[in-house]
Design a protein that fits this description.
single chain, about 375 residues, alpha/beta, VC0802-like, Rossmann fold, 2 domains, seven-stranded mixed β-sheet
């Protein structure tokens, strides 16, 4: 495969973090856009990004972009793309996508036209009329935004936030990619100590540990492009070996998790074991009002319960008030707290040293960061 353009969709607010990460992987042509990061590369680049990205939601081949205000234009635009480079005679190639503020508003109709265009192209290239689609899936995705069409081919399969360690979770877990971004914003390093006083299923603690130890988040899962005959099998084994070699086994990282719910504490321990970082994470049942630590330096990173999640607004704000009392200003300590409540700072008792807009699922939030003494 020659060099192509890839798209890495990501949560709004962390595009810059995702772009910086890809650059650190020695990936070229990286540029951040709203909700995604584009980059250039070959099969090795694609495999590396799938295995190692902490912040991307998936890795897609950007097949092409063009303007279409009619189904004829959509058909011709899709038909011109080199589908035969990836989709073989027996591959399944379903179509899904979205249309926003565009003349072509019917999703089912767009799906049918795109499918028909791909079939027409492949029929000409392979000299056949019928595709049984019995082999590995090559998922085609489209986004039509203000009449601009983006056509993608997914290489990940399940979203990259599905690392493989969190088959069970608490009622309202934070997404793994967002937890990883919070660890990045909190400057988690190999020597860091991280504390989460509302650990839930342990996602923030585990993502912090994976980052500190430089464990690639995709090492314990598989990707759809591994089954494509168009991608050499050895690419994946080479990139996995590279990722294993980069693990920092000498890191001094430690993490502590607390929760008022005993089942959450046990779940954190179980998930940490599945992620291979159980020796770095210590958990116990503890109420937030009893928060304390003898650590000289620590990064507190947490996703406390709030109105849209587990508590009503009044209960959540009572919790924020307690946090404001127990999260003392201490040299070497920082606090990163995600919340959708616009009144968080006043309830917490002091203004954040820095704020950052993020999305926790579909909920618009702020990450409130405190680090000045």
């Amino acid at each position: 495969m020659e060099k192509v353009i890839y798209a890495a969709p990501c949560l709004f607010g962390i595009e810059g973090i995702c772009a910086d990460e890809l650059k650190r992987m020695d990936i070229q042509g990286v540029r951040a856009e709203n909700g995604r990061v584009l980059f250039e590369g070959d099969e090795k680049t694609m495999a590396r990004a799938n295995l190692c990205s902490r912040y991307a939601e998936r890795i897609q081949i950007l097949m092409g972009e063009f303007t279409a205000t009619s189904f004829d234009e959509l058909f011709e635009g899709v038909r011109k793309l080199p589908w035969e480079n990836y989709i073989r005679k027996n591959n399944a190639f379903p179509v899904k996508g979205h249309s926003i503020s565009s003349k072509l508003a019917s999703i089912p109709d767009c799906q049918k036209i795109i499918k028909k265009a791909v079939v027409d192209r492949l029929s000409e290239k392979y000299g056949i009329k019928w595709f049984d689609e019995s082999d590995a899936k090559c998922q085609i995705s489209f986004l039509i935004m203000k009449d601009k069409v983006s056509i993608m081919l997914d290489t990940s399969g399940e979203g990259l936030h599905k690392r493989g360690y969190r088959r069970d979770s608490t009622v309202a877990p934070i997404k793994e990619t967002l937890a990883a971004a919070m660890a990045d914003m909190s400057h988690v390093r190999p020597f860091s100590t991280v504390i989460d006083p509302f650990c839930g299923s342990g996602t923030i603690l585990i993502e912090s540990a994976l980052k500190a130890l430089n464990i690639a988040p995709g090492l314990r899962r598989r990707f759809s492009a591994e089954l494509w005959s168009s991608v050499p099998v050895e690419i994946w084994s080479q990139e996995r070996e590279r990722a294993f070699d980069l693990i920092n086994k000498d890191a001094e990282f430690e993490a502590f998790g607390y929760d008022i719910d005993e089942s959450a504490v046990e779940l954190t321990k179980s998930n940490a074991y599945k992620a291979g970082v159980e020796k770095r994470i210590h958990c116990e049942v503890r109420n937030i009002k009893d928060f304390r630590s003898d650590c000289e330096r620590a990064a507190v990173i947490t996703n406390p319960p709030y109105g849209e999640r587990l508590l009503d607004a009044q209960q959540a704000r009572q919790l924020y008030s307690v946090m404001g009392r127990v999260f003392e200003k201490r040299s070497g300590w920082s606090y990163t707290i995600i919340s959708p409540d616009d009144q968080f700072e006043s309830t917490f008792g002091r203004q954040a040293d820095k704020r950052r807009k993020l999305y926790n699922g579909m909920i618009k939030c702020q990450a409130y960061m405190y680090f000045k003494r």
